[in-house]
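Why does residue order matter? Because the sequence determines the fold. Keep that principle in mind as you read this record.
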Amino acid sequence: RFQMQTAVLFIVSRALRFLALYLQWAIIGRRIYLTEIAFGEVLASRVFRTARRCCALFYACALLYLCGRELWYQCVASSEDMLGDPDQIEQLVAASRGVWDIVVITLIWWVFRRLLAATDCSEARLGPYVEAEAAWARWVLRRLRLFMLVPALANILVRVTAGSVLCAIGEAADVANDVATASAQVFCEVVGFVCLLGMVGTFERGMHKPCDSAALRRCSYSTSQRSQGSGSGLMIDELQCELQTEDAMAKVRELAGRSIQVGALLAFHERLGAGGVMPHYDPWASTTNDVVRQAIIPLSRVPGGGVAYSTMGAAAEVAPVTLVTHAWSNLFVDLVAAVVADALGLKEYGDVADMLAAGEHASLERALQERGVANQACWICCFCVNQHANICGCFAHEPPRGSAAHARWSKTCRDTVTGDVFTCCDCDQSKVFNGNPECELDKFDTMMALLQNEVPGFRHLVAVDRGFEVFGRIWCVAEVAEAHRRSIPQHVQLCSCRELRNDTRNLELYERLTSISVANAEATRPEDKDAILSKIEDVQEFDAQLQVAIVGERGLLGQRFVGFGVWEVAANTARRVKALAKAHQQRHADAAVAPDAAGPPAASKAAAGASVAAVANDA
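Structure:
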């Protein structure tokens, strides 16, 4: 009975060691396979899987032989009756384990060499945000490589050390031999178990990505000396000093006192369409610009001029808790849907836009009432700025005919649905523009600072249109960067978040967002762009902050990854950086080839023609 128990313990111990080893191999293989999928290229998962199966088959055969021999020896026969030398089998298994460790080290090193090379964007200047993502991915991939390599390296090191010790003490010291062998096995198993926990993400819980780019930690507004953070904005006297006049500060306070409630915004949208205001309104075609010109401006006209739409019928001023940034080229239904979805706590506004287009305003109103946010006050420029004091009676400066700018300008002068040119308002309201203390178009940044100081819980909402054009408008870019610089809580409403997932295969949008520059942003009035650019000392650092503010919340640097998924995110990042670097190099190559393909310049052609004529005359 005692001999049977000894045999069973021997078999169980060997089987558990084999299962633990095979589990470690399986996890390493799975990690390589998932990394291969995320990276989008074939690495070494098939080679590793084939080698693992061959090694496992050999180990299983050796285990069956050793277990069968031990069982026969303990229960049936004496040692003289046994065939084969078990020590030789043990040595063969140990040798095969060493060979397998070398194979593992070679494959892992080759795989991660390709991954780390993909995150190297030193040759292609992809911008500080992408470079920060690449730096984080390299850091994560190096950790994963360490967890995979250490067990194999430890096994080789321990076996070499144990072999040296055994040779030194001699074969006669059986006790020392057994102790050294057992200690080596225990050490290898402990190291393997710890690294196994690392590979499954046990040590990565709640891990944030580091941002080691100095450009992402600084903002170089000319007003960078201002204090930041909630409750630490500019003091009122500092704001007034910045505006230089009391009249300008009074206008800022007037603007900050205007707002439109979410329920009122929903009711306004319900009035649009057949039988109401702007009968030809089409939710899937009419833009905010269309609604401003043909609904908001006519409705806000009063005898002798006009007022901001939000002040009409308002019993008292209500300070807004949310400032909404949006593009006038956006569908108006999407603007309303973004504000309503944000009030309802939704992350996307696509479904709300569908409900608005279907006329389900009553259902949305009930949802707002149940949540208690129907009276939530928002600041939206098209409602809270008096359009009669600036744009109602004219259009922006006409760009040169035939240019792309002229085509865009012409589009803003016409209704999207009918194609007719807008009818300008002929009210008697005096018009004031940038630089005038009474102007309402150039004080958004100061108004944001005032609201941050005086309104608890003040926040910034970016209503992103389906084409992401909001990030190409100079005023929108300025508001996003200003809120980010002042640490005003920012929220982004997208029609759908699918395009910003880290595993998306469509990199066009990601490339656009991570290469946005304030210098390339557009403005209806050129003087607006000049005024904003004059406040920026270093455009490159400003762009870095802008990219973090735009992509950071749903992009890589703003997310928290837990456990196993962090490795796939790092591999996705490597794939993305590699694709962007390749596209960047291709564009530079095309730009270098383009002048050559266009032929010699006109002056060169003229000189060549003159030379030919001279030769002809000589002949």
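The first helix runs from residue 2 to 39.
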